[in-house]
Specification:
Blueprint (H helix, E strand, L loop, with lengths): L2 H22 L5 H6 L6 H12 L2 H13 L4 H29 L4 H8 L3 H33 L4 H51 L4 H4 L11 H11 L12 H16 L2 H4 L8 H19 L2 H16 L16 H6 L4 H9 L2 E3 L15 H19 L7 H20 L1 E2 L2 E2 H4 L6 E4 L4 H8 L4 H39 L5 H23 L6 H25 L5 H23 L26 H18 L6 H11 L11
Antiparallel strand pairs: 1-4, 2-3
Helix pairs in contact: 1-8, 1-21, 3-8, 3-13, 4-5, 4-7, 4-14, 4-21, 4-23, 5-11, 5-13, 6-7, 7-8, 7-21, 7-22, 7-23, 7-24, 8-21, 8-22, 10-14, 11-23, 11-25, 14-20, 17-18, 20-21, 21-22, 23-24, 23-25, 24-25
Length: 649
């Protein structure tokens, strides 16, 4: 059976299960649509939360960014620390208290706690901005996965994924999504773990990838990470295990991911689905267990993917020095069945290899800075010449190309790699001209030549991860619009049937917008998701914390804090990523040397959160305190009824 057919069968079976569950668990009331009737067992809710949480960013992109990050794997471990640490904050500081409050949505809590329809409306705006930003990454992951394994374009894959989400999310609401996510968790964790075990056995002889990461590389007999460092540094890349050059940015980024996790609306609403307050805390604990099953494997997956890729491009690197032998040839790529994965991924547009110097080989290395800049300038000069009208005076453009070529040749004659200049080697630049982070996990089983059923399983797992989170986000958006905006502000007397219809219509529009934005994302999946975390960290998390733990913060303070956090963080992000993520509208170059104090757009959420807290407390201190009944509400959320006062012994 060919790989394409196998992919169709495995993915088709899993989709049939998801849609079947959605039909079986179709929501018949607003309580079921928003909170699954508050009857989900904490273990099942923990599993569903794990699926809701482990999105395309976790499954597809996280190991890819760890594998390919120019700064090395250590710096990118912030994703692991931030995303898992956030669940500890969520379990301890938010989940049980919000469940005790007993409402359906985060904006509803904010509106009641801060006795303000304006605060609730602002929370709706924040939630929609966060969720739409987050869902862009999921839709990109869906498109990448469908595009590769159904052998269609990424855009067409995105359309198919949107249609699947529409069927089970619009039908089932939270009830259908919850039980679908339980099935999706089972699929994604199996799909992630099995290839990792196979590859760990191949490279290190260890059954557990977590131990293989610190084990011995079988082919060379050296420690695995030592071998990986040796291979990548030989090719001009930074050592894989090297420390970060900007510790402040890494700390802020980790904090942004942590508090952003605890403030994500689509995660928080999962804790409204359990019967009791104690179940909310238990659910968070189980979710952390289920998440750890994947997150402890991810560093090994990223590291082993990087080594497998590099030794594929430089066959001699597996047992010796990469540059002591030839690079992979274009002829081998086009004819060797074991390298068919390269040809397949080239069709998706996520991988591009170009024989720039015409020697028949594909040299994969890190271009030194001078050569990289010279090649970029030469490409721009050639593009300008090609775009010139045929009847135009091309003298100046041709002179610019000649000048850029001379400067590039000078850089090649100066820059060295492995003791020789690039000119002596006959190289003109890195010939792997595009290598997308989002393809690494999906391509990993193919690079390692694993069986076809494993490749098909990875496809099903990646789709499960992306679709489960997309559904949760879309539900958060639709509930904010139907329950908090329409019922809470526009039409408080709307019937339950009308509200349910409004929720489904809102979700339909949300799917359409998410699909459109997913066609032109502002980055790869993990980057886009990290932006959403920054927005959540700067807006939702502070107001929830102050709402639960401070009786003094009033509605004026909450509104001021959310506005400051939202405006500051979104403007900083848009300045570098483009206004509303529209390509080409950024005001500043998205490069580290242009960041204020070295703080990237991915890390700015922590600063936004600090400004949110400060603004809320300053404004609250100069305005009237909350009404007495609101202060009693805060007290009742934190202290169990009937507990009594502390007694000295």
């Amino acid at each position: 059976m060919d790989q394409f057919t196998l992919n169709l069968i495995v993915v088709g079976i899993t989709f049939a299960i998801y849609i079947g569950i959605a039909i079986w668990a179709r929501a018949g009331s607003t309580a079921e649509f928003y909170a699954a009737g508050q009857g989900v067992h904490p273990v099942l809710n923990g599993m569903a939360t794990g699926a809701d949480w482990m999105s395309a960013a976790s499954f597809i992109s996280m190991a890819g960014i760890i594998a390919l990050a120019p700064a090395g794997g250590y710096e990118q471990s912030a994703y692991l620390m931030g995303w898992t640490g956030g669940y500890v904050l969520l379990a301890l500081l938010l989940a049980p208290y919000l469940r005790k409050f007993g409402k359906f949505t985060v904006p509803e809590f904010i509106g009641d706690r801060f006795y303000s329809g304006g605060a609730r409306l602002l929370a709706v705006i924040c939630l929609i901005v966060i969720s739409v930003t987050y869902v862009i990454g999921q839709m990109r992951g869906v498109g990448v996965t469908f595009g590769r394994f159904l052998e269609i374009s990424t855009d067409m894959g995105l359309y198919i994924g949107a249609a699947i989400v529409f069927v089970y999310a619009v039908l089932g609401g939270m009830k259908g999504i919850t039980y679908t996510q339980v099935a999706q968790y089972v699929v994604l964790i199996i799909a992630y773990t099995i290839p990792a075990i196979f590859i760990s056995l191949q490279l290190t002889g260890s059954f557990l990838p977590q131990f293989g990461l610190t084990g011995t590389h079988v082919a060379s007999g050296t420690e695995f990470l030592v071998k990986l460092d040796q291979v990548v540094t030989e090719l001009g890349f930074r050592a894989y295990t090297s420390e970060t050059a900007n510790m402040l940015n890494m700390i802020l980024f980790t904090m942004s991911l942590m508090i952003g996790t605890a403030g994500l609306p689509h995660v928080i609403i999962r804790f409204f689905t359990v019967p009791k307050v104690a179940d909310a805390r238990s659910s968070a604990g189980w979710a952390l267990v289920f998440i750890a099953l994947l997150y402890t494997v991810a560093p090994a997956v990223g590291s082993m993917a990087r080594l497998n890729l590099t030794t594929t491009m430089w066959p001699n690197a597996a047992t010796g020095n990469a540059l002591d032998g030839p690079a992979i040839t274009r002829e081998a790529i086009d004819s060797n069945p074991e390298l068919s994965w390269i040809r397949t991924w080239e069709k998706t547009g996520l991988l591009t290899m170009t024989d720039l110097n015409g020697d028949g080989q594909i040299q994969y290395f890190n271009e030194p800075a001078a050569t990289a800049a010279a090649n970029k300038a030469l490409a721009a000069a050639n593009a300008a010449l090609a775009a010139a009208p045929a009847d135009a005076d091309r003298t100046a453009l041709e002179a610019a190309v000649a000048d850029a070529t001379a400067k590039r040749d000078a850089a090649l004659a100066t820059d060295t790699l492995g003791g020789q200049t690039l000119a002596e080697r006959g190289w003109v630049g890195n010939e792997v001209t595009k290598l997308d982070n989002d393809m690494m996990v999906l391509a990993n089983p193919e690079i390692a030549a694993l069986p076809g059923w494993v490749i098909a399983l990875v496809a099903a797992g990646a789709l499960a991860a992306a679709l489960s989170t997309a559904a949760g986000l879309l539900l958060a958006i639709s509930s904010a619009i139907s329950h908090d905006l329409i019922k809470g502000s526009i039409n408080p007397n709307i019937s339950e049937k009308g509200e349910l219809l409004a929720a489904r219509i809102a979700m339909t529009f949300a799917i359409a917008i998410a699909t459109w934005l997913g066609l032109n994302p502002p980055g790869f999946a993990a980057q886009v998701v990290a932006l959403a975390f920054g927005l959540a960290a700067a807006t939702i998390f502070p107001v929830l914390m102050m709402g639960i733990f401070s009786k003094r913060v009033n509605k004026q303070g909450a509104i001021a804090g959310m506005l400051v956090g939202l405006i500051f963080t979104s403007v900083y992000i848009f300045a570098y990523k483009g206004w509303f993520f529209v390509p080409g509208t950024n005001m500043l170059p998205d490069t580290p040397d242009q960041y204020f104090f070295g703080i990237s757009p991915l890390s700015i959420g922590t600063v936004g959160a600090i400004l949110n807290f400060a603004s809320a407390y300053i404004v609250s201190s100069v305005t009237a305190p909350p009404p007495h009944h609101v202060q009693e509400l805060v007290e009742s959320i934190r202290v169990p009824r009937g507990a009594g006062t502390a007694v000295a012994h």
